[in-house]
């Protein structure tokens, strides 16, 4: 099949974007790209909404949308850090109560373990504290490297958010047709590829919200219906449900964190409850893969098996970040090929 100039340019831009995606995944900068895409997309959507609601001030809607998102993001960061700070301060103000609660949790965990395991565990809280201190001293440099990596990733994430806001502010969709005559064919093709990437990202973002809601509903059923039916009541159930939705908006990693939290809380009740909970959560997690592939696949007319294979393939090559970005990457490639009339 002979390709025209537009198709050749489109394929070149697709290959260029794909090359950069692979490089960014390899050097672990993909979280910044995802954060940038999120803020860019939200800026465009909010700008479109405000320009319709503020007809007299439509020329300022772009600035207002950026300011609103910036305020919201800063508020989330400040609120998160303040909550953690307040939590640590509260623990420091009531050390006896904190130690009592920790001791109660430790005792519940130890009592839930079989005797063959508890034989190897410390006998009391003081021994546990000394064991933890010895571990921290032996692994001090490793822990420092973890802290540095967390701050490094946080800085990268913030840089991606800032870039997304800047690009969202500069891109004025209402004047794009006016400027198209002044653009070269390559520039038009690059912008078309970027627009396809944004569209695909919207599909994936919507699917992630649906998955977070699904996960929240299934977790609510477990914590408030199934377990209470057997006389089991987990502590912090309402907080766990809230955490399930909020962290569920973060692909893969958010699920792993909230599943670990629920497992630990269930473990304080008994080992049997913890094992039942983790099996239930793993089944939900696997169902989410199919649900994600189904939602995104419907939008780009791709089969579930195609997206699942892409997710497994990129996870094998690039780890968790490959698994997170796989639906976006594959959907972007397939949508580009379809719009270029190559497939």
UniProtKB/TrEMBL annotation:
Keywords for this protein: Membrane, Transmembrane, Transmembrane helix
Cell membrane listed as a keyword: no
Record membrane topology: Multi-pass membrane protein
Domain of life: Bacteria
InterPro entries linked to this entry: AI-2E-like
Subcellular location(s) per record: Membrane
Protein name: AI-2E family transporter
